[in-house]
TrEMBL record:
Protein name per UniProt: Apolipoprotein A-I
Domain of life of the organism encoding this protein: Eukaryota
Primary subcellular site in the record, as a coarse category: secreted
Coiled-coil annotated spans: 48-95
Membrane-spanning ranges: none
InterPro entries: ApoA_E, Apolipoprotein_A1/A4/E
Pfam families: Apolipoprotein (PF01442)
Keywords: Coiled coil, Secreted
Any one Gene Ontology molecular-function term assigned to this protein's record: phospholipid binding
Gene Ontology CC: one annotated term: high-density lipoprotein particle
Species, as recorded: Champsocephalus esox (pike icefish)
Amino acid sequence: MAAFYFASAVQDQLPPAAKDMIHKVTSDTGCLERELAAALKPYTDNMEVQLQQRVEQLKQELASYAESLDTEALRATLEQKSVELKQSVRDLQAQLGPYTDDLKLKVDQHLQDFQERVAPVAERVQDQLIQKAIQVRDMAAPYVEDLRIHLNPYSQDLQAHLTSLYEANAK
C-alpha cells in the first residue's frame, strides 16, 4: 500500500512531458495489445475449432470401443489418436509460425519506435533536472558562503577550546 502512495506521489511530481510520455506508453501498450489480439484471433479460433473437431471425432470413435469394452483395441486407438492429435498440434504450430514471426517483427518495430520517441524526452527531462540542480546550487551559494563566514569564528573558538582541553588533560 505504501508503494502505491509513493508511486502516486512521484507521478504527481513528474513534469508534464514525462506524464505525457507515460500516457503515450500506456495507450501504445493498449493499442498493441488490441492489435495482437485481433491479429491472432482468426488463427486461435481456427486452431480451437480444429482441436474441438478432433476431440469430437475421438469421442465418436472411442464410443464404439467403450461399448464393447475391448481394452486392447481401445488402448491402440487411444495411442494412435494421441499421435494424430500431437501431429495436428505440430501442424497448427507450423502454420502459425510465419504469423508469430510477423507478429514478433511488429512488436520489435513498435518497441523501437517507442524507444526513439522516448529517448529525446528522457534527454530533455535529464537536461531540465541538471538545470534545476544548477539553479538550486547557484541560489544557495551566497547563503552557504554567508554561513561559512558567520560560523568560522565559532569554529576557530571551538578548536581553541578543544586544543586547550586536550593539552590540559595530556599533562
